[in-house]
Amino acid sequence: MGQTIVIVGGGAAGFFCAANIVKTGGTKIILLERSQKCLSKVRISGGGRCNVTHNSDSIAAMSKKYPRGEKFVKKTFHRFFVPDTIAWFAERGLKLKVEADNRMFPVTDDSQSVIDVLTRAVARNGVDIRLGQHVYDIVPKEQGFTLHIKGHQDIHADQLVIASGGFPKLEMFDWLQHLGHEIAAPVPSLFTFNIPRNPITDLMGLSVPEGTVKISGTKLQESGPVLITHWGLSGPGILKTSAYGALQLAAMNYNFQVQVNWLANYNEESFRQHLMTYKQEHPHQKLSNITGLPIPQRLWNLLLLFSQIEETQKWVDLPAKQLNKLAKNVTALEMKVSGKTTFKEEFVTAGGIELSGVDSQTMQSKYHEGLYFAGELLNIDGVTGGFNFQNAWTTAWIAAKTISAKI
Predict the structure, then answer these.
(1) Boundary (domain end) residue, out of 324, 342, 360
(2) What is the mean pLDDT of residues 190-196?
(3) 306 and 375 together in one domain
(4) How far is it, in rounded angstroms, from Cα 78 to Cα 97?
(5) What percent of the chain has pLDDT over 70?
(6) Above 70 in pLDDT, residue 346?
C-alpha cells in the first residue's frame, strides 16, 4: 500500500514540492488549490516576467535580505541555494539571466515559461491537481491527517505539506490554529507610501537612480531607486524600507514622517559644500540650470520652490539661508506619510507560522510527525528582488527531500 501525500496550495512552493518528491510504487501525490487557478503569483511577478531568484553566491549576504527569518534561511540555504535553483530550471530547459540589479529572470522574459516548466514537472510526477478545494480543518490522526474540504469528501494524508501562501488577516489562519503552532499576526511587508496633497505627486513617473529613505524617529534607513507616483512614493528604496519597517510602520498605523535624500552619494553638509563651490564657479548661471546631478529637471525645480528660490534667480544672488535650505531639501526632504498602497505585484506579508516550531533541516513540524510547511505561510519574508521566491523553492525542496526519504 503506497502513501498518500497531500500538498495544500497551488503556488510556487506547492508546485515545487510536488515536482521534487521522488515517488515509489503506489505513492499518490494530491495537490489542493482553493481557487480555480494555480501559480497566479508566479504569473504576475516581476511585471509578468517572473523574478525567479536573486543572483548571489553568499548565503550570509543573501540571508540579510530577509527582515524576518534571517537565521532560519541561513540554515536552509545550505541545503538548496541560488545555484541549485538555476540548475533545476536549466535541467528542465529554462535558462535564467542576471539583470544589472542582480535580479534573475527567465531568458524568455515571460513568466509563462516558468509556469510551463513547473506544470510539466508536476505532470511528469503524476500529481493529481484539484482546484476549488477549500480545506477548512485538519485533524491529526494516529497515522497521518484527515482533511475536511468544503463541499467535498474528506481526504486522508499520510504526509501533509501546507504551502498555502501568506494571509493578510490573522483569522484566515484559523484552520491551522489547533495544530499547536504559534502564528505571528500578519502585516503587509512590501508597500508604497501615500503622501496625500503634497505637490510632489504632480511629478508622478519621475525617479532618481539612488536615493536614501529614512523614517523619522526610528533607525529605519534604506537606499535604492525612488519613484514618485500619483499617490506618493514607490520604487525599491521605498519597498525595502517598508519591508524592514513592516512591524514598526504598522504600529504607527502608517502615519509617519519620511525623509528622502534624492542624492544618496551626498549628505546635507557635503551637498552644501558642493552648492557653495558651484555658486563660485557659475555665479551668473540661473539656479534652474544646475548640471551634473542625477535629479530630473522638474524635481529640481520643485525643490527650488520648496526652498523659496525663483528658478530665474542667479547663483550670485543666492543668500546663504536659501542655499542651506536647498541643501536640506535635496538631501533630507521631509514629507508626511498617511497610509500605504499595497504593491500588488509583489504582495507579501510579514507574519505566519512561527519558525520556532519548524525544523529547518526537514521543514517538518516539531509537534506533528509528517506535517511540513513551505513558502510564504512561514514567518519569513524578503525584500523585493526574487528573495521570496528563493525561500519558496528552498523550503519546498527540503520538504520534498524529507518526504522522499521517508517513502
Answers:
(1) 342
(2) 95
(3) no
(4) 22
(5) 99
(6) no
Structural domain that includes position 273: 191-342
In the predicted model, is pLDDT for residue 34 greater than 90?
Answer: yes
For residues 272-283, average pLDDT: 97
* Mean pLDDT (whole number) for 291-296: 92
Q: In 9-158, at which residue ranges do the beta strands (DSSP E only) sit? A: 28-33, 53-54, 96-98, 103-106, 128-131, 135-140, 145-149, 155-157
Task: In whole angstroms, give the CA distance from residue 214 to residue 212.
Answer: 7
Question: Is there a single domain that holds both residue 286 and residue 233?
Answer: yes
Instruction: Out of 326, 342, 358, pick the residue that ends a domain.
Output: 342
CA distance 269 to 22: 61
- Work out the angle at residue 274's Cα, subtended by the Cα atoms of residues 268 and 279, and round it to the nearest 5 degrees: 125
103-106 vs 128-131, strand pairing mode: unpaired
Contacts of 252 (CB under 8 A, 6+ apart): none
Set of cell numbers at residue 403: 518526504
pTM of the model: 0.91
pLDDT in the model for residue 24: 85
* 57, amino acid identity: D
Amino acid at 178: H
User: Could you tell me which residues come within 8 angstroms of residue 281 by beta carbon, excluding any fewer than 6 positions away?
Assistant: none
* Amino acid sitting at position 201: T
In whole angstroms, how large is the CA radius of gyration of the chain? 25
Could you tell me if 208 and 129 lie in one domain?
no
Number of domains making up the chain: 2
Average pLDDT of the residues in 379-397:
96
